[in-house]
Design goal:
8-stranded parallel β-barrel; manganese; 4-stranded antiparallel beta sheet; TIM Barrel; single chain; about 375 residues; mannonate dehydratase activity; 12 helices
């Protein structure tokens, strides 16, 4: 295992910082990634290769890129012709990634973004994104949820506003639950099965791994505004893997925080999932890790720095080690603060803390 960072449109200076902090693997989360698109809007293999060489020039590896699935999941239920057009572009992107030397792509099944209901004050006055199902309101969803790569509003001066960004390309086709028209459990699975069925054969042929981010957060029974999060439980994750049980290209962007949100016993849930989906399970399904913590658990939590949450992070490191996982650990969803608007110092803390845990667990990185 080793340190990774997930970055959006990083500059040379930001890449230098990552290298100086001891990062080995880079995940490019830019969505849409206009810099590597060709004239037809699909990725260009030559531009992917150039991006990979640029990362390598800083002494790191380009390990993963984000596949922007846009509105394809919702469209597969409502506008199938539009969904098919997106699928054709995604197949080209997968092949271009392979031809450009990148063998892992992550994607999300979130049709309605990453739902949050507010912000609460954390250590030293930092702003922590929260989800309390009992507090859910459409207007809170609009303001405090993550849409694509747009951060939730925390009320500080200059903060990005998901409300103002509504409909922008950076929201990646996601809408509020109140606008989705209801998505039953059956429809949720139908959309996911459609996407996996349409993309996995291309990925397998190209030698590319598709890393799915589960639904964040788990929704209560009956959903929210008629929308169900079917990949909001370990049972749902098992069902997802069962869609292609023999495929080595079918797995997870294993978001530890998201898995922790699935249970009132967060540490136990994460340990169970590592055992179920890591290499020791037979076929490795953990293609990358969002190594993050939360305070609380199922239906009531806030985001947290890695050292202060409800998940025992050292036990998790030991579990990854014992399961044979040897990939990247990326910090994610750190709190926000007006004294660290770019969150670089917070992410630096996370990286240093993770390095310490790896050393404490005897993991060479």
């Amino acid at each position: 295992m080793y340190l990774g960072e997930q970055l959006i449109s990083p500059t040379d200076e930001r890449m230098r910082l990552s290298a100086q902090l001891g990062v080995s693997g880079i995940v490019i989360d830019t969505r849409p990634n206009f810099a590597i698109q060709g004239d037809d809007g699909a990725w260009d293999a030559g531009k992917v290769a150039a991006l990979r060489r640029w990362v390598e020039g800083f002494g790191m590896r380009l390990e993963v890129m984000a596949l922007d699935v846009g509105s394809v999941l919702l469209d597969s239920l409502r506008q199938p012709d539009r969904a098919q057009a997106i699928v054709r572009r995604l197949r080209k992107d997968i092949q271009a990634a392979a031809d450009g030397g990148v063998d892992t792509l992550k994607y999300t099944v979130a049709m309605v973004g990453i739902t949050r209901t507010g912000v609460t004050e954390g250590r030293g006055g930092m702003k922590c994104s929260t989800f309390r199902a009992a507090d859910y309101k459409a207007e809170a969803d609009a303001r405090f949820s993550y849409w694509g790569v747009v951060l939730p509003e925390d009320g500080t001066k200059g903060a990005q506003s998901p409300v103002e960004a509504k409909g922008a390309p950076e929201t990646c086709g996601q809408v509020m639950a109140s606008e989705a028209g209801g998505i039953s459990e059956a429809e949720g699975w139908k959309a996911i099965e459609y996407l996996v069925g349409e993309l996995l054969p291309t990925a397998e042929k190209a030698g590319v791994r598709l890393a799915c981010h589960p639904h964040d957060p788990a929704y209560p029974p009956g959903g929210l505004n008629g929308v169900h999060h079917v990949l909001g439980s370990i049972g749902g994750m098992r069902r997802f893997i069962a869609l292609a049980p023999e495929s080595r290209s079918h797995g997870f962007n294993f978001c530890q925080g998201t898995v922790a949100e699935m249970s009132p016993n967060p540490t136990e849930a994460v340990l169970e999932a590592i055992g179920a989906f890591g290499p020791a399970s037979g076929i490795n399904r953990i293609f990358m890790v969002h190594f993050r913590n939360i305070k609380g658990g199922y239906l009531d939590f806030r985001e947290a720095m890695p050292d202060e949450g409800s998940v025992d992070m050292l036990k998790c490191i030991a579990a990854y080690r014992d399961a044979g996982y040897a990939g990247i650990l990326c910090p994610d969803h750190v709190p926000l603060s007006d004294v660290d608007p770019g969150r670089e110092r917070f992410f630096s803390f996370c990286l240093g803390y993770t390095r310490g845990l790896l050393q404490a667990a005897g993991v060479r990185s």
